Amino acid sequence: MKKRLGIISILVLLFIGFLINWTYSYYKGLEEAYIPIGDVKEIPIIPSEKKVFERAEYALDYLNMPRDENHQRTLETYYDNRAYPGAPPSIPHPVKEKLGMGGNVCLQCHQNGGFVEKFNAYAPVTPHPEMVNCKQCHAEQQTQTLFAANNFYKKSAPEVGNNNALPGSPPAIPHQLQMRENCLSCHAGPAAVKELWVDHPERVNCRQCHVPLKQEIENVELFVRTNTNTQ
Ligand code: HEC
Ligand code: HEC
Ligand code: HEC
Ligand code: HEC
């Protein structure tokens, strides 16, 4: 009798063990294989590619944002405001302080974008918030027409929508990377140009899949001035 009880209790223990194990692995299996993109910062990053991740924390917001069809920019208006592709755009709106660098005043709207009631448009996000002397490169628009006739012609921009090697493969980057390291600032969010708007902003490591089209384009690293006062 004792022997039989012993065997039965071993079986019961084994069965309980099985149940615990099974339940544990069942619920583990239900958990999502999810790697939070917030941890991206801890992964060692190649310095010249660091800026790709600068706006990564907003990637999921961009993904879940509804598209505001009534206030989207088009490539045509985008190029209209540039002397040539890649040139600093002029400031198309009035600026209060005529003197000064801009800096913080401009960053109020251009650091993270957002809808600006009085201009009835979304503020484009600047890819270079660290370059605080904004008006060194961005000038206020003075006139819509030329001051005088001249023979300057606008270089045509790289083609869009035809940079894939195969249908469905990631298109190569048709533009230079200097001043364009921070992909999400131009390719995602409500101020992004309609034709350049990307449906996968959450894949933050853009250059893992998109390579420059022209391999001779040199990737110039971001220049950072060291503080000479501390020496
Ligand atoms: C009150 C918010 C606000 C402030 C402050 C502001 N901007 Fe803007 N900016 C906008 C909006 C909105 C647009 C988009 C206008 C449009 O699309 O019609 C814009 C457009 C621009 C553009 C054109 C971008 C492009 O892709 O064509 C430049 C350049 C610019 N601003 C520079 C500046 C600078 C430099 C300053 C500081 C002197 C500044 N802005 C201050 C809201 C602002
Ligand atoms: C060293 C020159 C320089 C400085 C300083 C500078 N920018 Fe720019 N900015 C550029 C150039 C060049 C482009 C165009 C980049 C391109 O199209 O490849 C640009 C583009 C932009 C754009 C449009 C991005 C887009 O959608 O194409 C905005 C907005 C902008 N800058 C805002 C600012 C603000 C705000 C500041 C100050 C905090 C500033 N910039 C400082 C040169 C500069
Ligand atoms: C200053 C704004 C800006 C930044 C920053 C930028 N791009 Fe672009 N991108 C453009 C514009 C404008 C075009 C359209 C072609 C042109 O005028 O250069 C374009 C075109 C492209 C295209 C071609 C799309 C197609 O359908 O053919 C790809 C791919 C691309 N960019 C990827 C990137 C990646 C990856 C990064 C980051 C390393 C990046 N871009 C950063 C403005 C930008
Ligand atoms: C895992 C690979 C991968 C990553 C990472 C990736 N892309 Fe793409 N991308 C693709 C593929 C594949 C396509 C082509 C989709 C198609 O043709 O339907 C594409 C298309 C595009 C286009 C053309 C417009 C469109 O949506 O079809 C742009 C612009 C673009 N990607 C920009 C970006 C930017 C900016 C990032 C970083 C935030 C990025 N991509 C990250 C694979 C990737």
Note down, in words, how this protein is organized:
The chain is an all-alpha fold. It has five helices and two strands. Bound molecules: heme C (4 copies).
Write the layout of secondary structure elements.
Elements: H1 2-30, H2 59-64, H3 75-80, H4 104-110, E1 114-116, E2 121-123, H5 183-187
Antiparallel strand pairs: 1-2
Residues 81, 89, 91-93, 95, 102, 105-106, 108-110, 116, 119, 121, 123-124, 134-135, 138 line the site of one heme C.
Quick tags:
binds heme C; elongated; mainly alpha; 5 helices; 231 residues; 2 strands; two-stranded antiparallel sheet; single chain
Q: Could you say which structural class the secondary elements and strand pairing correspond to? A: mainly alpha
Instruction: Kindly report the oligomeric state of this protein.
Output: single chain
Supply Rg: 27 Å
* Coarse shape: elongated
Distance between the termini: 89 Å
Give the bound compounds: heme C
Give the DSSP E fraction (strand runs of 2 or more residues): under 5%
How many distinct helices? Answer: 5
- Please mark out the parts with pLDDT under 50 across 5 or more consecutive residues, or reply none: none
Mean pLDDT: 85
Percent of residues in helices: 10-25%
Q: Name the strands of the widest sheet in spatial order.
A: 1-2
Strand runs, count: 2
Spell the H/E element sequence.
Answer: HHHHEEH
Largest sheet: 2 strands, antiparallel
